[in-house]
Write a structure and sequence with these properties.
- The chain is mostly helical and 274 residues long.
- The chain has one domain (26-272).
- Helix content is 55%, strand content 6%.
- It has helices at residues 3-22, 37-52, 69-85, 123-128, 132-147, 150-159, 161-168, 173-182, 190-204, 213-224, 241-254, 266-272, and strands at 25-26, 32-33, 99-103, 111-113, 118-122.
- The longest helix has 20 residues, at 3-22.
- It is globular and about 50 Å long.
- 39% of the residues are buried.
- This is M48 family metalloprotease.
- InterPro entries: Mito/Outer_Membr_Metalloprot, Peptidase_M48.
- Belongs to the peptidase M48 family.
């Protein structure tokens, strides 16, 4: 590398680090995050690139093919995403990417969202759920983790500011790859999970969806008892009782609709999937 280029890069790096410590970013909800929104976006872009490059770990459903079935599946799930984003409650609706992809793995009951709004939903979760309201609730929860910037907070604790800044600057692909591999099972604090649960209700409230749809996911697991296929991301929250209660309580406090959305094509949507 040219010496002057190397020196310039180091100056930019040190300046960026100084900004992180001296001028932490204030989120729209008033909370503090050491990364700027722009850095969240860039981090998400880097991680999503790694996910796209790892078909063995993340077998993404192609957006075209199978006589139009894939296109119909993506059209359906993106319509759900749009309803949530257009609720008027998502703080970074305009700033983040909010791209949704389907991961073709029926054994995994999961969904996750990178910093900057790249959403991934597993076919296992879609097929496990019974209604569009439930999927919208889970997606709202995952969107909240990005919108409330929980993911960046968590990754900062796990990797430190310096390594994450390396990823943002595109100078540490190994860490970007490692983050991509582990993001699906990233563990959040109970406070962050509670905030995401509450936000899911708030996001769904103006949409016509059953606002406590996320509770339906936990109720299904609870009703199936010991034989339920508990997702790995619930390993720190094995008993969903409190979450069901708090989600429903939040819906009641907000005065939101709690009746199931009528006349959906959710079963048809599941039929679009391989």
């Amino acid at each position: 590398m040219n010496v002057s280029v190397s020196i310039k890069k180091n100056i930019i790096y040190l300046y960026a680090c100084a900004l992180l410590f001296v001028l932490p970013a204030c989120d729209k909800d008033g909370s503090i995050n050491v990364f700027s929104v722009e850095q969240d976006v860039e981090l998400g872009k880097q991680v999503s690139t790694e996910i796209e490059a790892n078909p063995a770990g993340y077998p993404l459903l192609p957006e075209t093919g199978r006589n139009g079935q894939n296109e119909k599946a993506y059209q359906y799930i993106r319509a759900i995403t749009s309803k949530i984003l257009n609720s008027g409650q998502v703080a970074y609706k305009e700033e983040f990417a909010w791209q949704v992809k389907i991961v073709q793995d029926d054994k995994v009951l999961n969904a996750f969202c990178t910093p900057g709004g790249y959403i991934y939903v597993y076919t296992g979760l879609i097929k496990y759920l019974d209604a569009e309201d439930q999927l919208a609730g889970v997606m709202g929860h995952e969107i909240a983790h990005a919108d409330k910037r929980h993911t960046t907070d968590n990754l900062t604790k796990q990797y430190g500011i310096q390594l994450l800044l390396d990823v943002v600057l595109g100078s540490n692909q190994n860490v970007a790859t490692e983050i991509a591999k582990g993001l699906a099972n990233l563990s959040y604090s109970r406070a962050a999970e509670r905030e995401a649960d509450d936000a899911s209700v708030v996001y769904l409230c103006p949409t016509g969806y059953k606002s406590d749809g996320a509770a339906g996911f936990f109720e299904k697991i609870q009703n199936e008892g010991e034989g339920a296929p508990v997702p790995e991301f619930l390993s720190t929250h094995p008993n969903p009782d409190n979450r069901i209660e708090s989600i429903k309580q939040k819906a009641q406090e907000e005065g939101c609709n709690t009746s199931p959305l009528a006349n959906t094509q959710y079963q048809t949507f599941k039929g679009y999937l391989p």
